[in-house]
From TrEMBL:
Cross-referenced InterPro entries: GH, GH13_cat_dom, GlgX_Isoamylase_N_E_set, Glyco_hydro_13_N, Glyco_hydro_b, Glycogen_debranch_GlgX, Ig-like_fold, Ig_E-set
Alphabetized CDD domains for the sequence: AmyAc_Glg_debranch (cd11326), E_set_GDE_Isoamylase_N (cd02856)
Family to which this protein belongs: Belongs to the glycosyl hydrolase 13 family.
Organism in which the protein naturally occurs: Mumia xiangluensis
Annotated region described as Disordered, given as residue ranges: 431-454
Protein name: Glycogen debranching protein GlgX
Broadest EC class assigned to this enzyme: hydrolase
Domain Glycosyl hydrolase family 13 catalytic: 126-535
Length: 663
């Protein structure tokens, strides 16, 4: 003890080595930190005093300070270096250059959950909505200004109503672990907006709180979303931290146990993240930090799942080789708390050997970039035929079935936070990232986009009409394919970032959702709402097993039949015809569980035409239904005609039509 008066008012005891971090107890607060090579560790309590941690159990230093409770600021000193507690649950502040101005507080675990229950939406009924806490409400006209851009703002009834109207079931939040802006970004007068630069894996990002209690406000947000049947999925960044590479800021892990927490090779940081360091996720201290963080967010914050950024960085063991089965991925899969929540991998990292799409175990779903690429290529008329789009519509069985996983292992998307918005995808051939201050060098160049004839904004009526139809085609395909659809927040409003496909550093109207749908793009909300409703009401559009083309002995129909417009049988050679720009699929779900219970139409027909001319499409007959009704036409949202089997339906150029068996 340094200050005698502090010792008298707040005496200390040895405390316990677990849990790590700060934990209120009956008589005060217990503090514990992993620091295996430290010679001296001190606890700094501003306004109270400084305490020597004299008790040590293995690598963990610990002390209990009596009379200290929630709200108390604290810091650690390790061999004279002030560091942030990596297990802190309430953190504020950021960086000034390379100097940490982060402060941690003892968090209050008390909260009245008022009977909160997780929605536990089945994977086949899940529609993910990827959103940014701040960007979602900064310009929302019905959210009070004082809570815009916050957890409280996201929980506002007007926001929940909009989400319910869209038909989404889960909100996937861009990183909400407390994060900081990189010095190099701050030097350009910009900020880290997306949040992929974590410093505190157990603390909600404080600037997203409208109050001085981000922990309780986050919990209130989760409770409000759950009350509306919406799940909360967190985008988590356990692959690296904000300490960066050599010369980066010294925040916590580097001072506490550099070689234990970070992966090294030949005396340098091993970097497969592109961010200067890679967490050594298979080590005891790093694995413990990851698992404890995940459990905390499930047990205490009631979240429903996680999307793991650059997951392949976590799948590395030993000298950095990829080995999913021996990595923390397997630990997460077996954990009794975590195996019951949704687990989504971004199945790659920044290395050549980290691309692992289809390589994750049972219980995991994965972002499917081949879906994104094949769907974009088909609708932009890139050539290459229809084999790719067919595989994606049917759930990517070649990718996920070998590991015994169902279509729901594929998270299908055409846009995400990283890349063009949906509107920009049909408005720009090239990226325009000059505002990022890197001379347009950043961001991907291979976007598989098509500007429909004019680069950027235009008044050309024909170009605008084509763009709007193309956007509807892309989002409808995402929602109607087998698998789990994911939408990017703002796409339904026609949001543009003016061709910036890497807007990570802009906290401004450029990245915030527009207050209302952009003029001319209002139709996208209807397309999304109608497609999500079709998906919810008709299990034939969300199969829990892969369609095989097998013929049912009960009704003589294949469970999946590929369709040509003229009705001729599909031939193997058609898959190799690079000139094909039309494909249809007839689905029969007689063997699906939902249909066995009498839920939804037993048959659906989806017709896609990416060509420049309209097509008259012959509907299947024979054992197929006698009548069909149009459920969605991206060229004419008012089209609701009925057709007999064997009749032809007009599918406009660059459009998609869905028909269901009519009663």
């Amino acid at each position: 003890m340094v200050e005698t008066w502090a010792y008298e008012r707040h005496p200390s005891a040895p405390g316990t080595p677990y849990p790590l971090g700060s934990q209120p107890v009956v008589s005060g607060t217990n503090f514990a930190v992993h620091a295996p090579r430290a010679r001296r560790v001190r606890l700094v309590l501003p306004g109270v005093g400084t305490y020597e941690l004299e008790s040590r159990t293995g690598s963990i230093w610990h002390v209990e300070v009596r009379g200290i409770g929630p709200g108390q600021e604290y810091a650690l000193e390790v061999d004279g270096v002030r560091v942030l507690d990596p297990y802190a649950k309430h953190v504020v502040g950021g960086l000034e250059g390379n100097t940490s101005r982060l402060r941690s507080y003892v968090a209050d675990p008390a909260f009245d959950w008022s009977g909160d229950e997780p929605p536990r939406t089945p994977w086949d009924r899940t529609v993910v909505y990827e959103a940014h806490v701040r960007g979602l409400t900064m310009q929302h006209p019905d959210v009070p200004e004082e809570i815009r851009g916050t957890y409280a703002g996201l929980a506002h009834p007007a926001v929940l109503d909009r989400l319910a109207d869209l038909g989404v079931t889960a909100v996937e939040l861009l990183p909400v672990h407390h994060f900081v802006t990189e010095p190099t970004v701050a030097d350009r007068g910009l900020v880290n907006y997306w949040g992929y630069n974590s410093v505190a894996y157990l603390a909600p990002h404080a600037p997203y709180a409208a109050t001085d209690d981000p922990v309780s406000e986050f919990k209130e947000m989760v409770r409000a979303l759950h009350a509306r049947g919406l799940e909360v999925i967190l985008d988590v960044v356990y692959n690296h931290t904000a300490e960066g590479g050599e010369g980066g800021p010294r925040i916590h892990l580097r001072a506490l146990d550099d070689t234990g927490y970070y992966r090294h090779a030949q005396g340098h940081y091993f970097d497969v993240t592109g961010c200067g360091n890679t967490l050594r996720a298979d080590s005891a201290p790093a694995s413990a930090l990851i698992i404890e963080s995940l459990r905390y967010w499930v047990r205490e914050m009631h979240v429903d799942g996680f999307r793991f950024d650059l997951t392949s960085a976590l799948a590395r063991t030993g000298r950095g080789r990829v080995d999913v089965a021996r990595s923390v991925i397997e630990t997460i899969s077996r954990d009794p708390v975590l195996r019951g929540v949704k687990l989504i991998a971004e199945p790659w990292d920044a290395s050549m050997d980290g691309y692992l799409v289809g390589g994750y175990p049972q219980g995991w779903s994965e972002w499917n970039d081949t879906f994104r690429d094949d769907v974009r290529d088909f609708w932009r008329g890139h050539g290459g035929g229809v084999a790719g789009i067919a595989m994606r519509l049917a759930g990517s069985s070649a990718t996920f079935e070998p590991s015994g996983r169902p279509p729901q292992a594929s998270v299908n998307f055409v846009t995400a936070h990283d890349g063009f918005t949906l509107r920009d995808l049909v408005s720009y051939d090239d990226k325009h990232n000059e505002a990022n201050g890197e001379d347009n060098r950043d961001g991907h160049s291979g976007n598989r986009s098509w500007n429909c004839g004019v680069e950027g904004e235009t008044d050309d009526v024909d170009v605008l009409g084509l763009r709007r139809r193309q956007a509807a085609n892309l989002v409808a395909t995402t929602l109607l394919a087998a698998g789990v659809p994911m939408l990017r927040a703002g796409d339904e409003l026609g949001q543009t970032q003016h061709g910036n496909n890497n807007a990570y550093c802009h906290d401004s109207p450029l990245t915030w959702l527009p207050p209302i749908a952009e003029v001319g793009w209002e139709h996208l909300r209807e397309v999304v709402a109608r497609a999500t409703a079709l998906r919810a009401e008709h299990p034939v559009l969300r199969p829990t097993r892969f369609y095989t083309g097998a013929v049912s002995a009960e009704n003589g129909r294949e469970d999946l039949r590929w369709l040509h417009p003229d009705g001729r049988p599909w031939a193997d050679g058609d898959w190799h015809d690079d000139g094909l720009r039309t494909i249809g699929m007839a689905l029969d779900g007689a063997s699906l569980d939902g249909l066995a219970a009498g839920e939804g139409a037993s048959c659906a027909v989806v017709l896609l035409n990416s060509g420049d001319e309209p097509v008259d499409w012959m509907l299947p007959d024979g054992p197929w239904p006698w009548k069909y009704a149009v459920a969605l036409d991206t060229a004419d949202l008012g089209h609701d005609g009925a057709y007999d089997s064997g009749a032809s339906v007009r599918v406009a150029a660059h459009s998609l039509v869905v028909l269901l068996e009519a009663s």
